[in-house]
Every structure is written in C-alpha cells, then in structure tokens.
C-alpha cells in the first residue's frame, strides 16, 4: 500500500489503523517497519487534529500529583509561599502567579501548559493567571 498524503477522513484513518495493526511488529529496518513508522506519524497527526485531549484543570492536576507523590500542602510552601497562600491556591481562592507556576512545574513535574491554563476560582468565572 502506498502512502503519499496525510489522513483526512475517518475512513482513511480506519484503513490506516487496520494496516498498522498488520505490520506493527515488523522489523524496524524492513520496508514494513519503515511503513509502520510513517503510519504512526500519520495517525498521530490525525488524532491530534480530530481527537484532541484536553489538559487537566491546574488545581486538580496539582492535587493528584501531590497525592501520587505523597506530598502534603506544606510541601508546596517553597514553590508557592506561605502556608496561607498554599491553602488559598488549593482551595481556589487565589490564582496561581507566573512565579508559582514555574516553581510548581519544577517541584511537581507538571508541564507548564497544564499549570498556566485558566481555571475557576471559588465559584467565580475562569480566571486568567496574572
């Protein structure tokens, strides 16, 4: 099968997935292996355009990461500031600042793209980080 263009329809996408499943285990240096590599790239591009995955809410992502890493609120003090500020941020009463976002990204290992998103503050409309 010859692949000369990007995937533009759902039918082409399904056809590409079917072919990919046939050759996925091929040796990387073989013709089928190189075809599989190309198809993975085409499928990835199509999925990013047609099935985008939304990023998690910044505060939810922080809380989940804290739980996974066994962090307590006090562990965020070096990244956010005082115990009071940590509490305000985690309870959605204060927005993250750019400095907090940078620090939390390093401390928690969360991508900046997740932390910089607008989010709701204590029942108020979504707030863009200052």
From TrEMBL:
* A biological process term (GO) from this entry: regulation of DNA-templated transcription
Every copy of the HTH cro/C1-type domain together lies at: 82-115
The GO molecular function terms of this record are: core promoter sequence-specific DNA binding
- What's the protein here called? HTH-type transcriptional regulator/antitoxin HigA
UniProt source species: Algoriphagus antarcticus
């Amino acid at each position: 099968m010859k692949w000369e263009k990007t995937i533009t329809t759902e039918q082409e996408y399904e056809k590409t997935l079917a072919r990919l499943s046939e050759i996925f285990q091929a040796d990387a240096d073989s013709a089928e292996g190189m075809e599989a590599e190309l198809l993975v790239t085409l499928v990835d591009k199509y999925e990013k355009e047609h099935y985008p995955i939304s990023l998690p809410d910044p505060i939810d992502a922080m809380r989940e990461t804290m739980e996974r890493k066994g962090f307590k609120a006090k562990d965020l003090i070096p990244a956010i500031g005082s115990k009071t500020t940590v509490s305000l941020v985690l309870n959605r009463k204060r927005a993250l600042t750019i400095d907090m976002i940078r620090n939390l990204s390093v401390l928690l290992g969360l991508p900046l793209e997740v932390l910089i998103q607008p989010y709701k503050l204590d029942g108020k409309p979504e707030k863009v980080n200052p």
